[in-house]
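pinned: reference chain
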Amino acid sequence: MKFGQQLQQEIFPPWRLSYIQYDVLKSELKQRQLAHAWADQDEQDFIELLESELEKVYDFVTAKLNEVEARISYCERTIQTFMNNPSWSSDQNWNVMDEALTEVLFDVNDLAKFTRLNYIGFQKILKKHDKWTGLNLVQGFVPQLRAMPLDKQRFDVAIVFISSLHDVCRLQGKPRTGNAAAGGDQNAFERATAKYWIHPDNVTEVKSIIMLHLPVLIFNKDKRYEPSDSAISSVYFDNDDFDLYTGRLQRDEGAEAIRFRWYGPMSSNSAFIERKTHHASWLDGASVKDRFRLDVAQVPQFVSGELSADAYADRLRAKGTDEKIIQDNHFIASGIQTSLENKHIKPVLRAFYNRTAFQLPGDQRVRVSLDTDLTFIREDDLDGVKRRGPSEWRRPDVGIDYPFSYLDDEEILRFPYAVLETKLQTHLGQQPPEWLTKLVDSHLVHEVPRFSKYLHGACYFHRARMPLLPWWLSEMEIDIHKPRSTNFGLTRSKSFKPLIDGQYRRAMEQEERRMSIVADKANADQVRGPLDRNSFDHDDDLVMSPSPFDDPLMSSATLSPSNKQEPIPRSSSAGNTLIGSPEHKPTLAKPPQEPWKHAGSSSSSPTPSVFMSDVAPEEEQGLKKKKKKNKKNKQDMEMQELGEPVQLDKGSLRLDMKDEEKKPKGLKKILGPKGPVLVEDPNNKGSMIPIKKVKIDPKVFFSNERTLLSWLQFCALLLTVALSLLNLGEGTSKIAGGVFIGVGAVVAIYALYRFEKRAWMINNRVIGRYDDLWGPAVLCALLVGALIVNFYLKFG
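pinned: its structure tokens
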């Protein structure tokens, strides 16, 4: 597909005018060349037009990023207000804020696609210009692209903040007890890993989907998050024969991969000395990654052997480190030092990437990481170029400033895709969550089993020395960008409302959380009885989850009842904190008064509770009267969200009054004024099951209106005949015309009555006949009667 067609297909309509005018630029090139030879004035005019388009796009991206930051700041201040004022901390308010964050997340996803699409557009038009004119504007336009960079726009920071606030909303201000930094110094990791490639067009969407289920892992929440915090650099070691490369590629028993890794900028004080072992003999054949921490200043001493494993252990003992940790670190250090000496390995390759990790703090059963900006840089001197000093273990001239434009093409490889890694502790019985299975089976990812960053980078720079090459090199020749075949992922409706897996967020939650009325009042009155929250049999569809994104891992996370969780402190570009003062009350819609709300609620709360507590019989009678009085307005009431799973016991219902902490919120959502409609369970005779509420299709109302219009058309025809008889006829004809007018009026009134009745039945989901059983027959009888009267008067 040509880029012009692709651009038109992928344009986000509300932002249409802000995209690069690719067709205009292309037409300008073509028309000027057809008119005359390309001249200096043509080149100057084209550059001015190109600069104008670049400035337009860049200003739009900047304005949208500022808008996103302002909206996140508002959500952060409002959430802080909820946490400081429990009286405002209602289910509806938390849901409103969560929806606002979801809207921001969708805008970030759209903005990322907008930025990438426009960047590709400028690259395409520059190449087309050079091809048609023979000039080199690709290089000449570099200063403008650096001054207004589209390729360096990072949306990770916004996603991290949205993730943190989304997690707070999900827990309604309750803190997680897990420690995000736990495992940072863990020595050994045993996990089942799968790897996938992600096309750049899908990176932000994949991050957003994962974020809805797992929070972004932040190791140091006391520090303001910065883009450099996601940077990871690893220096891989091997010898001139690439024995470690060959062993890992062939998956030999005990094959090693040794790397020195640091997080963040080059000024980081710590480095991790890591070793990956395939089928480690000391773990009964299990594959493992183990590591230990060193100060950066100690790394050259460790590589040279000046700092031995024994000396390192002695330093740990002097610091009072636990003996078990000392023994583990000594075992790893001695093994790596043995490989350094015996295999004569040295730094050969650096891998850089920005990683976004998703994991519950302190819980490593499920971990998902997404690596972007993956770059391979040479560290060796096999081509005769000295890139490091004799005592240096990494190049001092390379930092973390992606895309490393100052390096020669012979020294760098920029990987075209992002790398998704899923890590499950299957040895502990952890199975992949359903949402993760859907993600890896979707069009957004491309599975590449056993992909290795080191193997890929090493074979690229030293292919002539490699006897074997990785199997996935052939995958680099195909297009992994797959067409969307299902509704999975983030999309928008025709009205540009956010859709998650093809559904509105609130509608999806309500479908999963609630039951509603679809039968007549008599049936509902008969089946209403005691509600047993723990004894409904085997009907999983009737148990409503607190969230459409809930999975066992998230719902089992331990929550601490004290010490309210603080959102991540952030600073704006001006250095001001974005956490607002609780003095400013958020402008959130208050939930309407429900007939289920009892008079004994706390009067101090601005948001009345939707829980029912123990009430006296007199109060219960008052509630019933109030419920009956408000029956006509039931369709207009705002339905509350459910906070607990609610189950039904064989069709019997009552409010559970025993434990307020376990009482279902928004029970009005399920019961309605008369209770749910139950039908007989075909799989269990004698048992009743409720029927789920189905969203009414607007086409049902339109069909009802079309039926009314059809009847009115017939009435109009009948009245036309009647008026003709009255105006043009004589005595007998006028009598017949009067009869036809009466028939037409009766039919019109009857049609209106049936229209109103059907509309009422649809709104109230009444079970019964929607067709008109007697109306057409009576109409035919009236017409035949009118004709008989007419013939009798004329010929009788």
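why pinned: Residues 698-795 form one domain. The radius of gyration is 35 Å.
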